[in-house]
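Weekend entry, working from home. Most of the wet-lab plans are on hold until the incubator is repaired, so I used the time to fold the two sequences that have been sitting in the queue since the last round of cloning. Logging both here for the record. First:
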Amino acid sequence: MFDCLYVMLLFVLLVGAFGAEEDTALCEILGSPEFPLLSKEGDITIGGVFSIHSQISSPPLTFTDAPEPLKCSRINFREFRFAQTMMFAIEEINNSSSLLPNISIGYKIFDGCGSNLPSTRAVMGLINGPERTLEKTCSSHLSVHAIISHFATCACLSNKKEYPSFFRTIPSDYHQSRALAKLVKHFGWTWVGAVRSDNDYGNNGMATFITAASQEGVCIEYSEAISRTDPSEQVTRVVRVIQSGSARVLVAFLAQGEMEILLEEALKQNLTGLQWVGSESWITAGHLATKGYSRILTGSLGFTIRKSKITGLREFLLQVNPSQDPYNNLLREFWEATFGCSLQSSPHGQTQCSGSERLQDIKNPFTDVSELRISNNVYKAVYAVAYAMHNMLKCGQSGEAKLSYLQFIMLYTQYFPHEHISVFHVSHSDSAECSRCQLEYWSNEDHSQCVPKVIEFLSYGETMGVLLTAFSLFGASLTLVVSCVFFWFRHTPLVKASNFELSFLLLFSLTLCFLCSLTFIGRPSEWSCMLRHTAFGITFALCMSCILAKTIAVVIAFKAKRPANTVPQCSAPFQRTSVLSCTLLQVLVCLLWLTLAPPFPYKNTAHATERIILECDLGSPIGFWAVLGYIGLLAVLCFILAFLARKLPDNFNEAKFITFSMLIFCAVWVTFIPAYVSSPGKFTVAVEIFAILASSFGLLFCIFAPKCYILLLKPEKNTKKHMMGRN
């Protein structure tokens, strides 16, 4: 329907421009001029046409007498919300100090009633205003500077030669129709029926679908058309065709008005058992599922318009009240239809409205803002016009002559992301131009120029970076303190039993583990990206190798049948060899990773449109997970051996503490994997640092805290007899 609206507008313009060139008489409108249902004065006026009513009277056309005025009835709450959304956006802009300052925007909202005749009158009202006598061209000065016409999805409007002033912010129905054909093919439905609205929207959309379906190997059993102005017999016939057909899949390329008419007749004829595939016009209309049609439409498929949230819209909608404009018939009609009452005394016993009823207590398509799809598009379209006006006026152009290039903007408002607005320019020919910003830039608030995007990475200057750095340095310092304690008590039985050499090597590796987390903080560079993952992998492999060697030493010490004092000397070469070989294997994996596909700094622009996330690309995910997997393998081996040796006879059985430390270590890194995968931007790095620090602190406290406790606070237990469990 709104596709036809734009074609009508263009026709009127052409007739006005060329049809009365030789006529010097003034042009006079026959009949009464069309007035907007909602209006507000402003320096700039934006027009809008919405199907605020869904039914229209059909006066007899005798061509001898003037036809009776068209009467629209049955208010459409959903479309009325669209109109109020336009008013809300204009109200926001008028209250803005940065967008169009000192310039007010007004509006003129007409009712198209979803039909050609009232839509034509709405077009005339938008172009000419309320004047009865016009200039000789049958077109006075335009009453609006831009027109917002939602749902104008017809592919025919993409022809810029025929419709140069039509701007589209979403792909046309050409793309939706082809996508529907692929959707049908995807589910293996090769025998389908088709029904469409008998207008440009339905006819063009269905024609494209049928062409695309035939290319996909899908056959069409029948293709029927209906219009809301058709006699009931036509709709009944179409439903009978669908009922008698053998196709169990029905593709309905229908406007919402025709869809409701079709469903009414489908209920009468008990039409069930069909798989419905729908166009965007009705597929998300929630009220269709609550009006008794659910048993017909269950399982319907289709492509939807992106939904969004509009801050403050619900509060604005709930303030709508007849008291805002006591003389506005539309507000009174809306109030009476919403609450089922009458604002005037009714002789038929209808409930009297007080005017103080609460919209907060009502749930209908007007108050429901949970699925803001088309409303969001109307909202974005108003802002697009405002930004265009703002930039034009900012360039120093003023006056009606300079406004000409925006006077007939028709915006289709179904998907308008911020970055697609980019930057508006006025061209060396007074035409509107929009240039997309480069990948590392985006438009400023008023869309007058491209500005660099914010570059995001985990830096030392932010709070999170400072905290992580502090914990890292604290852990490294604490490990050095423990090393000093162990060195001071190196000749005592406890330190000797703990294997002095391995303990110091383990403390050294833990110090490196704490410090390697610092390589993850700061602006990523080539060397830091390569260092952070390899340093992490090698230091933790060294750490796990030391713990594994200590665990094996404990098991050998208690399982060997030789004298106890000979076991450490015999196992020492084995311990050194095992630590060295296990660590060298990780070094080899890291060298292969750095040689074949090393990590490198990467600018991630896909995650967020307003900023660039500077991060380290792994280069080879296989290399990263191989390094992490090898550390996990060593940890599992340590845990198994320590668990088996946890009950060996010793007052100070180190295997118990190793078992507990491995439980913490494994728990940290198991929870790390889903957190690492799901964390966005710099938080991915923060999660990895947290896992490094948490596991390092866990190893330090579980293995060395009990020993330091005895060394410093319980020296009487630091004897060989106590260690061996001899009283």
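Second, folded right after the first finished:
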Amino acid sequence: MQVSLAGAARVLLAGDNPLTPKAFLIRYWDKEIHNNLPKSPFILSKASPLNAVDAATFTKLAAQNALSTKFSAFCSSANLFCFPDLAPRFENHHGNSNFAVYLNKNFTNYGTGVVNGVDSFKNYSDGDNLPVDSFRRYGRTSIDHNEKFSTYGSEGNVVDQSFNTYGAQSRGGASEFKQYNEQVNVPNLRFSSYSDDGNVKAQSFSSYTGDTNSGSESFTSYGKNGNAVPNEFTNYGENSNAIQSDFTNYGENSNGANDTFKSYGFNGNVPENNFKNYGAKGDGFETFISYREKSNVGDDSFQSYAKRSTQGNVNFNNYGKSFNEGSDTFSGYGEGADGQKIGFTGYGVNNTFKDYANKKTVSFSEYSNISSTATTNKLSGNLVNKWIEPGKFFRESELKKGNVMPMPDIRDKMPQRSFLPRSITSKLPFSTTKITLLKEAFHAADNSTMEKIIMDALNECERAPSPGETKRCVGSAEDLIDFATSVLGQNVLASTTENVNGSKKDIMIGSIKGINGGKVTKSVSCHQSLFPYLLYYCHSVPKVRVYEADILDPNSRQRSTTALPFVT
């Protein structure tokens, strides 16, 4: 029988103290698994590192819903994924500043009333794991002051950055976000009360979150009451995977605003953009050029867009053209607007218009509202396949000795974490109905990255199983053993890929061994979920064949690792 865990092994020796969580796990393994096969070094390496005293202390605090009182100590001692609580910084400054190679800073009340000059954030938080940056009351009432965020936070993992009450009542100058958070994993970027009451201050988002995986960006109460504030979004979210952008209360009551969305979401996979209460009572120009072109699926929603606005133009040019069918919804769009012109040129497919603006001010040119799949089927093959990583899926016939094939990226990009002992997880809430208690325990603020991470994991764990699937989310090694033995019985073998050698390269298949002689067998596979402590989504599906294959370097023919491909 087979239990497979995705990841690379890291061996840790069991502690000598018989009261540690790890020592308890070893005894529990011997009690529940009835064979003499070696214990998995990988699973043992993920056991809780807590010593006996700390385990008892945190177990008691968990029972009292008081873990938050020892948050830092708990996160550190238990090897958890937690965002730091940043202390505010209240210093002022009156000259130019160059921030390079900085990490995890809170800029509060920084640069208030400064005149002229430039603040440059370059190579800031680059390559950092779990960067947390906060800009609050930054540059308030500044005059002709420029800020440059260049090569900022690139290649970061689980990024949390917020710009709150940034540049309020500032006049002149410009903010430039260039090569911002390129190639990051799971970002959560928030622009809230950004440049409110600003006067002629330009904002430029160029090469912003390109090649990014998952995550969200929100623009809330952005540019409210602004005067002649141009905003340009260029190469925004290009080649990104599953990015969500929310524009809420954006440009409300602004005068002479000029927003351009150019090459926005180009070549993206499952993008989701929500424009809600956008440009209400505003007077300005909105241009969408080459917007979401060649993107795969995804959804855009324009709700209460440009309500009661006066004058100004909104142009959609080459919008969503040649994409693999997604959906766009326009609800309450341009409602009550006066003197506004709205044009659609080269506009894509599968769209809904409800409670739309005065038709006399709207023009449609080369608009395609296609309900059949004839056109999209021409596009779907290459567009969908480009998002499937080579080697991730293959036919059983390709699994033969000597065959050369690509191996997907199997490196573990998740934050390093450990299981919690069951004595603690059993006392922590694990339900969307008790999200408030979980947020309190892990210092997850409302609308924060951590709140979203927790909610996403809970929703996936609470999702009904697929037909024939047996599933369970496990946060302790004891729970993992219980689930595996409940499906497979007590004679189980836990296996994993030995290492990540050959990742993202062509590899050669070496010797192959079929589990259960290559016949259909029961198996349990487990996949990491992003969560404060190590959490696995474990499931068993019917009609599976499991193989153990040596992976060779195709040039030297030397063995690199052993992999465990599943065939369904």
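Plan for Monday: verify the second prediction. Residues 16-81+387-567 form one domain.
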